[in-house]
Protein backbone atom coordinates (compact mmCIF):
# COMPACT_ATOMS: atom_id res chain seq x y z
CA UNK A 1 0.00 0.00 0.00
CA UNK A 2 1.35 3.44 -0.89
CA UNK A 3 2.05 6.05 1.75
CA UNK A 4 -0.95 8.23 0.82
CA UNK A 5 -3.37 5.27 0.90
CA UNK A 6 -1.90 4.07 4.20
CA UNK A 7 -2.46 7.47 5.79
CA UNK A 8 -5.97 7.84 4.36
CA UNK A 9 -6.80 4.41 5.77
CA UNK A 10 -5.30 5.39 9.14
CA UNK A 11 -7.31 8.62 9.28
CA UNK A 12 -10.57 6.85 8.41
CA UNK A 13 -9.95 3.99 10.86
CA UNK A 14 -8.95 6.40 13.62
CA UNK A 15 -12.04 8.55 13.18
CA UNK A 16 -14.26 5.46 13.24
CA UNK A 17 -12.46 3.99 16.25
CA UNK A 18 -12.86 7.16 18.30
CA UNK A 19 -16.44 7.90 17.26
CA UNK A 20 -18.01 6.29 20.33
CA UNK A 21 -15.18 7.01 22.77
CA UNK A 22 -15.89 9.52 25.51
CA UNK A 23 -12.83 9.19 27.75
CA UNK A 24 -9.67 11.20 27.22
CA UNK A 25 -7.18 8.48 28.15
CA UNK A 26 -8.78 5.80 25.98
CA UNK A 27 -8.90 8.24 23.05
CA UNK A 28 -5.15 8.80 23.40
CA UNK A 29 -4.30 5.17 24.18
CA UNK A 30 -6.19 3.75 21.22
CA UNK A 31 -4.86 6.48 18.95
CA UNK A 32 -1.24 5.64 19.81
CA UNK A 33 -1.90 1.91 19.38
CA UNK A 34 -3.57 2.32 15.98
CA UNK A 35 -0.93 4.72 14.65
CA UNK A 36 1.89 2.37 15.67
CA UNK A 37 0.05 -0.62 14.21
CA UNK A 38 -0.67 1.03 10.86
CA UNK A 39 2.57 2.92 10.12
CA UNK A 40 5.76 1.24 8.98
CA UNK A 41 9.17 1.87 10.51
CA UNK A 42 7.85 3.57 13.64
CA UNK A 43 9.20 2.32 16.96
CA UNK A 44 7.49 4.76 19.34
CA UNK A 45 4.18 6.66 19.21
CA UNK A 46 2.78 8.61 22.10
CA UNK A 47 1.52 11.77 23.65
CA UNK A 48 2.96 14.34 25.99
CA UNK A 49 0.23 16.36 27.72
CA UNK A 50 0.82 20.01 28.56
CA UNK A 51 0.45 21.02 32.21
CA UNK A 52 1.59 24.60 32.87
CA UNK A 53 5.19 24.73 31.53
CA UNK A 54 5.74 20.99 31.56
CA UNK A 55 4.86 18.14 29.22
CA UNK A 56 3.95 14.93 31.01
CA UNK A 57 4.02 11.49 29.45
CA UNK A 58 0.62 10.25 28.37
CA UNK A 59 -0.49 7.05 26.63
CA UNK A 60 2.11 5.58 24.27
CA UNK A 61 3.27 2.48 22.41
CA UNK A 62 6.95 1.55 22.55
CA UNK A 63 9.83 1.42 25.01
CA UNK A 64 9.65 3.25 28.34
CA UNK A 65 9.98 7.00 27.87
CA UNK A 66 10.91 10.24 29.55
CA UNK A 67 8.13 11.17 31.96
CA UNK A 68 8.53 14.93 32.01
CA UNK A 69 9.85 17.49 29.52
CA UNK A 70 9.91 21.23 30.12
CA UNK A 71 8.54 23.55 27.44
CA UNK A 72 11.42 24.72 25.27
CA UNK A 73 13.57 21.61 25.82
CA UNK A 74 14.13 18.75 23.39
CA UNK A 75 12.05 18.22 20.29
CA UNK A 76 8.76 17.90 22.20
CA UNK A 77 9.29 21.02 24.30
CA UNK A 78 10.48 23.02 21.29
CA UNK A 79 7.35 22.02 19.36
CA UNK A 80 5.19 23.50 22.12
CA UNK A 81 7.33 26.61 22.43
CA UNK A 82 7.08 27.25 18.67
CA UNK A 83 3.44 26.07 18.47
CA UNK A 84 4.27 24.19 15.26
CA UNK A 85 5.23 20.69 14.14
CA UNK A 86 8.85 19.66 13.80
CA UNK A 87 10.47 17.01 11.62
CA UNK A 88 13.88 15.84 12.82
CA UNK A 89 15.69 13.81 10.13
CA UNK A 90 18.54 12.91 12.53
CA UNK A 91 17.87 13.27 16.27
CA UNK A 92 21.62 13.35 16.99
CA UNK A 93 21.83 16.67 15.11
CA UNK A 94 18.96 18.35 16.97
CA UNK A 95 20.34 20.74 19.61
CA UNK A 96 19.14 19.67 23.04
CA UNK A 97 17.61 16.39 21.90
CA UNK A 98 16.50 14.31 24.89
CA UNK A 99 17.34 10.66 24.16
CA UNK A 100 14.68 8.39 25.67
CA UNK A 101 15.23 5.44 23.32
CA UNK A 102 18.81 5.08 22.09
CA UNK A 103 17.63 3.27 18.95
CA UNK A 104 15.53 6.20 17.69
CA UNK A 105 17.19 8.06 14.81
CA UNK A 106 14.45 10.36 13.48
CA UNK A 107 11.38 11.98 14.96
CA UNK A 108 8.30 14.02 14.13
CA UNK A 109 6.21 15.94 16.65
CA UNK A 110 2.85 17.58 16.05
CA UNK A 111 1.03 19.86 18.49
CA UNK A 112 -2.57 18.96 19.27
CA UNK A 113 -4.82 21.94 19.83
CA UNK A 114 -8.09 21.74 21.73
CA UNK A 115 -10.22 24.88 21.69
CA UNK A 116 -7.30 26.92 20.35
CA UNK A 117 -4.83 25.93 23.08
CA UNK A 118 -2.06 23.36 22.96
CA UNK A 119 -3.34 20.31 24.77
CA UNK A 120 -0.60 17.81 23.92
CA UNK A 121 2.05 16.78 21.45
CA UNK A 122 1.86 13.69 19.25
CA UNK A 123 5.37 12.23 19.06
CA UNK A 124 6.57 9.54 16.62
CA UNK A 125 10.08 8.04 16.53
CA UNK A 126 11.78 5.77 14.03
CA UNK A 127 14.96 3.73 14.02
CA UNK A 128 15.53 4.94 10.44
CA UNK A 129 17.24 8.21 9.60
CA UNK A 130 15.05 10.58 7.56
CA UNK A 131 11.94 8.44 8.16
CA UNK A 132 9.53 11.40 8.20
CA UNK A 133 8.90 13.67 5.21
CA UNK A 134 6.67 16.63 4.46
CA UNK A 135 4.11 14.10 3.18
CA UNK A 136 4.13 12.32 6.54
CA UNK A 137 3.79 15.64 8.30
CA UNK A 138 0.80 16.70 6.19
CA UNK A 139 -1.06 13.48 6.99
CA UNK A 140 0.01 13.39 10.65
CA UNK A 141 -1.39 16.89 11.05
CA UNK A 142 -4.71 15.48 9.81
CA UNK A 143 -4.36 12.63 12.33
CA UNK A 144 -3.82 15.24 15.07
CA UNK A 145 -6.95 17.10 13.92
CA UNK A 146 -9.03 13.89 14.16
CA UNK A 147 -7.76 13.32 17.69
CA UNK A 148 -8.41 16.96 18.58
CA UNK A 149 -11.96 16.70 17.26
CA UNK A 150 -12.71 13.75 19.50
CA UNK A 151 -11.02 15.30 22.54
CA UNK A 152 -13.03 18.50 22.00
CA UNK A 153 -16.24 16.48 21.73
CA UNK A 154 -15.30 14.48 24.83
CA UNK A 155 -14.63 17.65 26.84
CA UNK A 156 -17.94 19.16 25.67
CA UNK A 157 -19.92 16.05 26.62
CA UNK A 158 -18.38 15.84 30.09
CA UNK A 159 -19.36 19.45 30.81
CA UNK A 160 -22.96 18.64 29.94
CA UNK A 161 -23.27 15.77 32.45
Oligomer: single chain
The top-level CATH class is Alpha Beta
Look at the helices and sheets and give the structural class: alpha+beta
Taking the sheet with the most strands, its summary is: 6 strands, antiparallel
N-to-C series of helices and strands: HHEEEHEEEH
Topology-level CATH name: Beta-Lactamase
Report the β-strand fraction as a percent range. 25-35%
Low-confidence stretches: 156-161
What would CATH call the homologous superfamily?
Answer: GAF domain
> What is the radius of gyration?
15 Å
Overall domain count = 1
User: How many beta-strand elements?
Assistant: 6
Overall, the morphology is globular
Strand order, largest beta sheet: 3-2-1-6-5-4
Question: How would you portray this structure in words?
Answer:
- There is one protein chain.
- The chain is of the alpha+beta class.
- The protein has one domain: Beta-Lactamase, CATH 3.30.450.40.
- 41% of the residues lie in helices and 25% in strands.
- The protein contains 4 helices and 6 strands.
- A 6-stranded antiparallel sheet has the order 3-2-1-6-5-4, with helices on both faces.
- Helix 2 runs antiparallel to helix 4.
- 32% of the residues are buried.
- The C terminus is likely disordered.
Summarize the structure.
This protein is an alpha+beta fold and 161 residues long. It contains four helices and six strands.
Amino acid sequence: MGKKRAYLSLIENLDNLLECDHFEMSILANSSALIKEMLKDVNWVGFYLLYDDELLLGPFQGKVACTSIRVGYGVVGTCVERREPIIVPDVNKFPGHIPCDESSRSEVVIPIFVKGKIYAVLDLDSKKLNRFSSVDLRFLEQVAMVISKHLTREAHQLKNI
